[in-house]
Amino acid sequence: MLHVLRAVFVLFCAGLGWHVASDPVIRLVPFLNESIRAGTIQPWHGLCVFGLIGALLVILEWGFTRRFVATISVVMVGLLVGLVFSALFTNALDLLPPFRVLDKSLKNLIDLILTFFFCYLAMVAILQSKDDFKFVIPFIELSREGRRGRPWLIDTSVIIDGRIADLADAKVLDAPLVLPRFVLDELQKVADAADRTKRTRGRRGLDILNRLRKNRSLDIQINEVRLAEIEGVDAKLIRLARVLDARLVTNDYNLNKVAQVQGIDVINLNDLASALRAPVLPGEGLTVRIVKVGEEPGQGVGYLEDGTMVVVEGCARRIGELVPITVTSVIQRSAGRMIFGRPGEPSGTHAAVKPEPAKPGGPTTGGAAPASPAAAPPAPGA
Fold first, then answer.
1. What is the structure's pLDDT at 35?
2. What is the pLDDT of residue 248?
3. Beta strands in 247-321 (DSSP E)
4. Which of 17, 296, 298, 378 is spaced 20 to 30 A from 62 at the CA atom?
């Protein structure tokens, strides 16, 4: 639709040029009028000149308005508000007897000064407070059909993490994603960093952005607000989230806590992933491969497929083995989930939570923690 309006504007300018160059009655400039009468200027000259001017204006609008649309809109609104207030004020002054007897030229001068003053004051006031009052939004964004949820404001950690793209592919996002320009600049700096690890993370983030952009079911918006007066990307994100009434999506622990203290709704992808994991309850059985020794004596550590750490008592010497275990406790944190267990599959009844290590009935290659056979719980033969 926007391209059609631009084309209509260029055609209108070209038609206006044809009309001006072919109608000598229009007395814009005496020289031009005489040239039209003499036939020096042909109608197609006006068509080309005015069409070129229209095309140049469209190019300027396309190149600059997209970058400074917020500032241009604020200036236009400031001019409108200033003209309205100056008209009201000058009309009120005309009701006073001292101003009725003033000379007309003096009254016009006073009106001009007041109009300039009110326009300047309105533009400065709106420019200084546009981020707080969201003055521009109703004028540059029409009401949307469909997605009406609160926007998700994403930061650099979420983009590099990449799981936001998986959520978009699963079509569970019904709210627009807002990507601030300063976050995009930060991601570009990371991608251009001298450190190889940072450069790899930054390029991965750019790939994730391209993946999000190609998702047709996703509404992703780039916010051009710079907030140059605020130091630090985290502080800018909190300020912008408050202005847009958006949910802040981050994996940054510190940003998460600071935003919550300031009353910002935060979505932590780690919490979201933990909520979507299959629940593991004490007494249930798992099979895990021990990959390293734990911090406490006798502990072995393994991981589930989703990255959950599993700490198993009495398995420090069974590294590399697949060990059936019984879950004794589960700890859930924002950083992730941790499962504790002991060797042995659960019996038909609810397994005991006693963290006493016991040797399974099957043969092992690395030996088990010391425990008497009588104290060991029943275990199926391997």
1. 56
2. 93
3. 247-250, 266-268, 285-293, 300-303, 309-312
4. 17
Q: What is the SS3 assignment for 201-232?
A: HHHHHHHHHHHHHCCCCCCEEEECCCCCCCCC
How many CA atoms does the CB half-sphere of 358 hold within 13 Å? Answer: 25
Could you give phi then psi for residue 16, rounded to 5 degrees?
-65, -40
Residue 275 structure tokens: 């909520």
Q: How many CA atoms lie within 13 A of 89 on its CB side?
A: 17
- Following DSSP, what letter does each residue of 73-140 receive, concatenated? HHHHHHHHHHHHHHHHHHHHHHTSHHHHTS-HHHHHHHHHHHHHHHHHHHHHHHHHHHHHHT-SHHHH
Determine which helix (DSSP H) or strand (DSSP E) holds 336, and give its type and residue range.
Answer: strand 336-343
234 contact partners, CB below 8 Å, separation of at least 6: 252, 254, 255, 258
Structure tokens at 121: 């004051």
Side-chain-facing half-sphere of 76: CA atoms under 13 Å: 10
Is the pTM above the cut of 0.85? no
Q: How far is CA 343 from CA 94, 288, 294, 311, 369, in A?
A: 94, 10, 15, 11, 10
Task: Fold for 279-361, please state it.
Answer: OB fold (Dihydrolipoamide Acetyltransferase, E2P) (2.40.50)
- Quick one: how many helices (H) and strands (E) in the chain? 14, 10
Which CATH code is given to the segment(s) 152-275? 3.40.50.1010
pLDDT over 70, % of the chain? 74
